[in-house]
C-alpha cells in the first residue's frame, strides 16, 4: 500500500509509517501528517492542532491528497483504488470529485468499484470507462466451489442449489460455504470439506441478507414500495399487474421501474404482448418479501389475487397454483384451498408429485377449519386423492394411515358410510406398496364385497379395479382374468369420469390388467393384444400412466417371446413417461423394462445396473416388487457369468417374494436360484435344486407362473446334466 502499513501494525506504528512516507515525498508536509493520519483512520490522540471549520478542512484535505498523488506519480505510474463507492458519504463524495477533476497531466489511474445504484457526474467524463462485472458462469462457479469445498463425492448435491441461489455472485458463494461450515453442515477445511449427514437445503447467510437489505434500504421510498409490491407478486410479473397494485400514476411507475432496472434490481424479460419484468436475483426477491410487515404483506397478496382473478385472458385455471399461494398469504385459507384443488386437477394425470402436494395443501388449509358443505367436500377430495396418490409418489404406509384415520374419523362423525368405504378402498393399495400383496388382496376382497352389499353403485367400479389389481399382485391370475372379463362387460369404455375415482378409466384398466394375467398364464399373443388395446384406449382417455403400464406389459411379452429390439423400444417409451410423471412405480417399470430388454439382447452388463436401480426404487416405494427386482438381478448376473454372486441375490429374492405374497416373483426367484446353484455347487445341491423346481412346477400348475412352463423342462434337463 501507499504507506506500507501492515494489517498487524498498531496505531503508533501506522502513524510512524505515514509520517515517514509523507516526509520522504516532501519534507514541507510534516505539519500535514496529522491530517493524513485522520484520513486513514489513525488519528493522533495527543495532537494539539488548530481547529479548522469543515469547509477549510475539506479544502486542505483535497489539496494534500492531490499533492501526494502528483509527487508519487512523478517517476512512475500510480494507481488509486477506492472500494465500495455505494457506501460513500457526502463529504467524501466531494473529495473524490475534486481528486478526479484534478488528475490532468498525471500518470495516474483511479480504480473504483461500486454497485449499479451509485451515480456521479464525473462518470460521464470521456476519460471514465465503466466495466460491468458479469456474474460468474456455471463453469466458474463450479471452479470456485471446487476451490472452497474440494472434490469429496458427498458434496455433489450442493453445486446446483448454490449456483441457483447465488446466480454467479462470488461473494454470495463464499458466504454460503462459510455458513455451511459454521453450522456443521459440512466438516473439514477449505478445499477438503465433506457433507455431514443428509443435505437439508441452503440458508441465506445473515451477511448476505444484510448486504441485499442495505441496497434496498438506500432506494428512494417510492422505489422501495414498488419493489416490495413486485415481490408480493413473485419472481417475475407483467407490468400491468404491478400497475394494478402499485397505486402510482403511469409516468411515475415508469420512472421507478427505470430506476430499479438501472440499479439492477429488476430485468426486463419480455416486451410483447405486455412488458414483463423479473427480479435479477432471487435473494433480492426474498429480502424484499421479508421487509414487508404482516399486514402490508397480506394486503398486497389480497390485491394480487383479486387482480389475477379479474383477468380477462381466460387463464384463471392455469394460474390456480399461483392464486392458491396468494390467497394463502392473504390469510384466506378456503380460497387458497379452492385454487389448490384446481391446480391439482390440472396436473392429475401429468405430474404426480405436484398433484399430491396440492392435495396436501388442501388438507392442511382446511383441517380444523370446516364450516360449510363445500369445505367438507374439498377436504374429502383431498383425503381420497392423497390415498390414491400414496403409492404413485411413494409417500409410504405411515402417511397413508394418518390420512385414513383422519378422514375416517371425520366421515364417521357425519355418518357417511360411503365415504368411509371410499377411503378404505383407496387406502388398500398403500398396503401393497408397503410390501404385503396378500394383505392387499384380503382387504380389496372385503371392500369389494362391501361395495356390492351396500347401496353404493358409484363405488363398485373402483372396488372391482382394486380387487383385480390385488389379484394381479398376488398372482391369482385365473380368478383375476375371469373377474376382469366380467368387469369389462359390466362397465363400458364410455363410463362417466365420475366413476374414475382411481384416476383412470375402469374399462381401460380391466383391459390392461387382463394382459397382466394372460402374460403370467403364458398366453403371450393374447396378452399383447390386450395391452395394445388398452394402450389405444389410454391414449384416448389421456391417461399417460396407463400407457406406461401397458409399456411395461408389452416389454414383458416381448421378453417372453425373445424379441429384444421390440422390448428395448417399449422400454424407451416407458422411460419418457416416467420422467414426465415423476412416478416411482413407472420409474420402477422403466428400469425393469430395460433390464428385461438388455437381457433378451444378451447384454447382461447393461441389464445389471438397471436391475439394481429397480431394487432401490422398489425398496423405497413399492416393496412388494423387491423380490421380483432381485430375481431379475440374479438372472442378469447368471447371464453375465457371475452365478456365485447370483446365489445370495436369488435366495433373498425368494425370501422377499414369499414374505410379500407375490407367488409369481417367488417362482421366478426359485428358477434363478436353482440355475445359480447348478453353476456353482452342482451335484451337492441336487436335492435343493429339485425341490426348487418342484415348487415352481406346482405354481405353474396353479396358474401363478405358467409363463415359466416353456422353460422349466430345459432347466431341469440342464440341472440333470450338470449334477449327474
Number of helices: 34
Widest β-sheet, arrangement of strands: 5-7-6
N-end to C-end Cα span: 91 Å
Q: Percent of residues in helical segments?
A: 55-70%
Shape: elongated
Structural class of the secondary elements?
mainly alpha
Q: Largest sheet, if any?
A: 3 strands, antiparallel
Mean pLDDT: 92
Q: How large a portion of the residues is in β-strands, by DSSP E?
A: under 5%
Q: Any low-confidence stretches, pLDDT <50, length ≥5?
A: none
Rg (C-alpha, Å): 36 Å
Could you please describe the fold and organization of this structure?
The structure is a single chain. With 724 residues, the protein is mainly alpha-helical. Helices cover 67% and strands 4% of the residues. The chain contains 34 helices and seven strands. The strands form three sheets. A three-stranded antiparallel β-sheet has the order 5-7-6. It has a two-stranded parallel sheet with strand order 1-2. Helix 4 links the parallel strand 1 and strand 2 (108-112). Helix 19 runs antiparallel to helix 20. The chain starts with 10 loop residues before the first helix and ends with a helix. The model has no long low-confidence stretch (mean pLDDT 92).
Give the helix/strand layout.
Layout: H1 11-25, H2 33-40, H3 54-72, E1 78-82, H4 90-101, E2 108-112, H5 138-149, H6 159-166, H7 170-182, E3 186-187, E4 194-195, H8 206-217, H9 221-233, E5 236-238, H10 239-246, H11 250-262, E6 266-270, E7 276-279, H12 282-290, H13 294-310, H14 320-329, H15 333-346, H16 352-366, H17 373-388, H18 390-393, H19 397-413, H20 417-433, H21 437-453, H22 460-473, H23 477-490, H24 506-520, H25 524-541, H26 544-561, H27 564-581, H28 584-600, H29 604-621, H30 626-639, H31 643-660, H32 663-680, H33 686-702, H34 709-722
Parallel strand pairs: 1-2
Antiparallel strand pairs: 3-4, 5-7, 6-7
